Structures are given as structure tokens and as C-alpha cells.
Amino acid sequence: MPVIPKTAAKMLGAKQKPPRKVRPMTRTEVRGFLEALARANPDPRSELDYTDPFTLLIAVVLSAQTTDAAVNRATETLFREARTPAAMLELGAERIGEHIRSLGLWQTKARNVVELSRQLVEKYGGEVPRDREQLEALPGVGRKTANVVLNVAFGESTMAVDTHIFRLGNRTGLAPGATPRNVEEALLRRVPPELLRNAHHWLILHGRYVCKARLPECWRCVAVDWCRYPDKTPPPAAKPPRRPQP
């Protein structure tokens, strides 16, 4: 008999219903879903502040387990002092830490920023490489970060699967998968090539602001007609007007 993890046991004890299995979208539905997002946001952009591939790389490395808004506040002062790998290396982990202390895991991130800057200077002449394996070999850079840099900085049609896109892929039936890599590979297969580059942004932003983790706001989703999620949420009940005070 399989052992149920404590977290799962608590959920079962609270009589929470497991999510219903979602039918994967057809390719026609995938196109319809993404074209609806495209009409609503024809020119999607990253919400991280950056000016070049290096500052984008640093911003994405710092964004792990925190929000883009928090990263932008930290990099506003950091990038005033250092905007190149050589300058970041000279700044050092302690002074970098002074700028990013408000972020989660800031000490590890400060060390990673210094070491990846060192490698960029020593191996690549201070330039960010346009190669997935070379990017992933840098400290603090995983597949998701490499995909963001390749997509945003270099215009490649990659798919960086974060928590939002992973949730969306499974919840909507767009690209179901057990792991982020499964979802990434499914999206690369199923998304029309001409929509693939921008799909990265459309899906992140949609998951961040509409198809939220706790409660998807289906009533204001522009792609709701294509979505396969079976438990769509209705609009919230209108609050009764306040009675005037006597």
C-alpha cells in the first residue's frame, strides 16, 4: 500500500476534491487560445527592467523565488553601480548583497552574480553567450533562465516554463505534463511556430494576472472559449451598496 505524504494526507483529511483531469487541447484549440491572448496583448514584453543581454541575465538570475517588481527595485540601484561583467566582478559579493538584500536567497545570488561575471570575463570576453549549454554552465543559471535569455535577448523561439506556464499548460489543457520539461517540450510541439516566441510572454503574463494559482479569474479571461478547464470560476458576487449613514 503506498504511503501518502503528510501534505497530501492533510488535503485528503480536509476533504478537498482532487483536480479533474483535463482533456488536452487540439492544435486548433491551441491556436485559438494563443491568438485570443495575442489580440489582447499584441506586443508582449518582459516585466524585468534591463538594457542588454547581461543586465537581463542578472535580472533573471535574481528573480528566482521572488517577484519581477522586487527584482526591479533591487537592480535599479545595482545597475547604477555595475552594468557590465567587469564592473560587477569589481563590485564584489558584499557590495552586490547590499543592493539585493531584500530578495530571497540574496547571499547565494550575490555569489552567483560575481562568479558568473568572472566566467563571462574570462571565457567570453565579457559577452553573454548565445548558446544554451554555455549559458546553463554559468553559476545560478538553469534551463528556465537560459530560455528567457535566448528568447528575450536574442529573439529565439524558446519556451521558459516557470510556475505560471507549468500551471497553465496543465490547467487549460494547452500542454499537459508531469514536469516543467514535459510541458516545455509539449508547447514546442503544439504551439504554431509563428506564435512561439511571443507565447512565452503571453502565457507568463496570463498566469500571473488572470489564470492565478489559487483562483483563476475565468470570468475575465479572453481565451476562455478555448480553455478545457472544467471548473471555471464565475464572476464574484456584487457587494450590496452601503446604506447611507444617518
Notes on the protein architecture:
The protein is mainly α and 246 residues long. It folds into two domains: 22-44 and 158-220, Orthogonal Bundle (Endonuclease Iii, domain 2); 53-153, Hypothetical protein, domain 2 (Endonuclease III, domain 1), CATH 1.10.340. The protein has eleven helices and no strands. Helix 2 crosses helix 11 (193-209) and helix 9 crosses helix 10 (180-190). The chain starts with 5 loop residues before the first helix and ends in a 37-residue tail after the last helix. The relative contact order is 0.14. Residues 1-18 have low confidence and may be disordered.
List keywords for this structure.
2 domains; mainly alpha; 246 residues; disordered N terminus; single chain; Endonuclease III, domain 1; globular; Endonuclease Iii, domain 2
Helix content: 40-55%
Instruction: Give the biggest beta sheet.
Output: none
**The CATH homologous superfamily of the largest domain:** Hypothetical protein, domain 2
Count of discrete domains = 2
Spell out the helices and strands N to C. HHHHHHHHHHH
Architecture of the largest domain in CATH?
Orthogonal Bundle
The radius of gyration over CA amounts to: 21 Å
The overall pLDDT average reads 90
The CATH C-level name of the largest domain is: Mainly Alpha
Alpha plus pi helix count: 11
Strand-pairing-aware structural class: mainly alpha
